[in-house]
Amino acid sequence: MRILGVETATAQGGIAIVGPEGLLAEVTLSATAGYGERLLPALERVLEATGLSLETVDGYAVSIGPGSFTGLRIGLATVKGLALATGKPLAAVPTLEALAATFPFCLHPVCPLLDARKGEVYCALFTLEGAEPVRLLEDAVCPLEALLPRISRPTVFVGDGLARYGETLRRRLKEKALFPPPERGGASPAVVAARGRARLLRGEAEDVDRLVPRYLRPTEAEITLRARRGGRP
Predict the structure, then answer these.
(1) Residues 97/67, Cβ–Cβ less than 8 Å
(2) The model's pTM
């Protein structure tokens, strides 16, 4: 299967196509310049680079969250539209799992960390069994202070949360806080595509009509609506 993967949940994203022969093409993008205007041109570039078309791609994968609300909506809307238009299967890849999977065979635990705003982070904790991330901590949204007691040994931190919280991690965790080089610290569209491909080969396709982003907390619109209803969901 040749799978087109989309990552827009984090500050570094893009589009990639992988197949049985490995990575065929990848275009990385920065959220600071906006995914909305550049995602479809990036799609055209990876298709042109591989000589494939939407009809000859076998399926799709999308980073499903947690992460940027806007980025998740853009990525999921794009991929759902492609899947519905072509009738090809779609796999949802947890964003933090995909971040951890960028460090196969890592001897230390890996902690993906995304800036959730409001003084909180999206986080999880994994060990790597070969190339496969194994969860030690489920996806959570919490203040950084709530995460720190869970770090008991040297741990690799990865994700856009390092821009805001990296120095705090160094100060509080000292030698237990390990960081990749900046160019290796972001999300990989190729990993999203590869993990989506593995899911589709296992028959784990999503119901496209029912698939929604994994936000972990309510959106601002939902919070406002609940406030108007007196706190009722």
Answers:
(1) no
(2) 0.91
